[in-house]
Amino acid sequence: MNLKDSIVSSYIAFENELSGRTNTPVHKQRSAAFDVFEKKGFPTIKEEEWKYTNLIPVTRHDYAIMPRQEYDLKYSDVKPYLFHEMDTYRMVFLDGVFSAWLSNTSSDKFQMACLCDELDLNTEVIQNHFNKYAKTDESMTALNTAFAVEGALIRVPDNVVVEKPIEIVYLATDKGKDIMVQPRNLIVVGKNAQVRIIERHRSLGSNNVFNNSVTEVFADVDAMVDLYKIQSDTEKSSLIDNTTIEQKQRANVNVFTFSLGGKFVRNNLKFSLREEHSHARLFGFTLLNEKEFADHHTLVDHMVPNCESTELYRGIYDDHAHGVFNGKVKVYPDAQKTNAFQQNNNVLLTDYASIDTKPELEIYADDVKCSHGCTVGQLDDEALFYLRSRGIPEREAIAMLLLAFKQDVVKEIKSETIRKRINRMIAEKLKVEIDMDI
Question: Who's near 282: CB < 8 A, 6+ residues apart?
């Protein structure tokens, strides 16, 4: 049985488990989404958006679609993948299922809850925001919507500043079988509210894991949102991450994506700037080796006047690693006074590493400031020679140049603790011991 057939069978079983809840408004959305996936199937390289990204190596495994397992984990097993060096709120999911004992959701100022509770009750936040921003005409988003049950719901009321970062951590366990999970996050940030969120997916075992994740973010008037996506996983893990962000007037949203390992990563990140004076900032840093693969597809829709977007992605590719960057900025006819900047810079460390990069501007307004560009190259020989001539060994000299290359992205992280953790992860990936928090 191929994976699509297995998913169809699992969906039938999923509906049977719902019993009398199949007539709810939410499940009608699930059913419509499943029809889309059943009709379209998995994306193929024949589609323009997937021409450089082959899903077949990911979908050929026999995954358990709705794993339900008993766990014998200890806190020490998961501690390395948490920001234990700082005080945070935390939601932890094991194989896609919320784990109360690993989580810390106690707050009387804002709401942190498992999405499953709100979906069953069809609460106001679900009615107003669930499945309103993600594009369910895309097959992988549709597939996630069809099985949407578990995930993080974060709702920050108007004028509330969440003082501590919020961690959303998805852990896959190793019980001897390959698994596929469908995490679904809904983040609603009220007027003049502020929040920082750290999202991570990590496999704890040696089994094949396929995460098909969807996150919807709504940022109301004057809201400020920082979202950090940390992607550093095993050689048998695959992740498709679809994140859609809706911004209202003067909202500021910053998304940082750090792709530091995994067999297969595909990031679809979309911003919709629907009211004036909003600002979207997209920062990405990719560091891959061996046969790792990461694909970043971004889209910023400037739909109204006087909005700004800033996008900077940098990548380092070693061994046989392969990267893809497709960044698109679309300026609609009414979006005068738009200011949009996009840049993608890449370093290839071997003749076998590769990057397919395609920055795009689609402009239908005439009074705008828009720029884009990309570079692909190798290490600067003159800079390397200069460091070597100062007595620095070659390996350390190369590491220093690579660590400096990421700085334009990492320096934008406001939290010193988060910045230090990212710097340490990058240094560990490079297998160097250099204290550089620059």
Answer: 255, 257, 269, 271, 298, 300, 309, 310, 311, 312, 313, 327
- Sort strands 152-156 and 89-94 into parallel, antiparallel or unpaired: unpaired
Domain boundary assignment for the chain: 3-430
Q: Which two tokens stand for residue 150?
A: 């578990």
185 token code pair: 């996050």
* Residue in 151, 149, 154, 150 with CA at minimum distance from that of residue 89: 154
Radius of gyration, CA atoms only, the chain: 21
Q: What is the pLDDT of residues 338-396, one digit of tens each?
A: 999 999 999 999 999 999 999 999 999 999 999 999 999 988 777 777 777 887 877 77
Give the SS3 label for residue 110: coil
Q: Write the DSSP assignment of 255-290 as a string of letters.
A: EEEEEEE-SEEEEEEEEEE-STT-EEEEEEEEEE-T
pLDDT in tens, 215-234: 999 999 999 999 999 999 99
Rounded CA gap, 223 and 218, in Å? 9
- Predicted TM-score (pTM) of the model is 0.95
Residue partners of 211: CB distance under 8 A and separation at least 6: 170, 172, 180, 181, 183, 201, 237, 238, 239, 240, 241
Helix (H, G, I), strand (E, B) or coil at 206: coil
Compute the Cα dihedral for 419, 95, 186, 141 and give only its sign: positive
Is residue 324 packed enough to be buried (19+ CB in 10 Å), middle (13-18) or exposed (0-12)?
Answer: buried
The DSSP bridge partners found for residue 60 are none
| Burial tier of 108 (Cβ tally within 10 Å: 0-12, 13-18, 19+) | exposed
Question: Is 87 in contact with 167 (CB distance < 8 Å)?
Answer: no
What is residue 249's three-state secondary structure? coil
Under 8 Å CB-to-CB from 22, ≥6 apart: which residues?
Answer: 15
Determine the Cα angle at 311 with ends 305 and 312, to 5°. 160
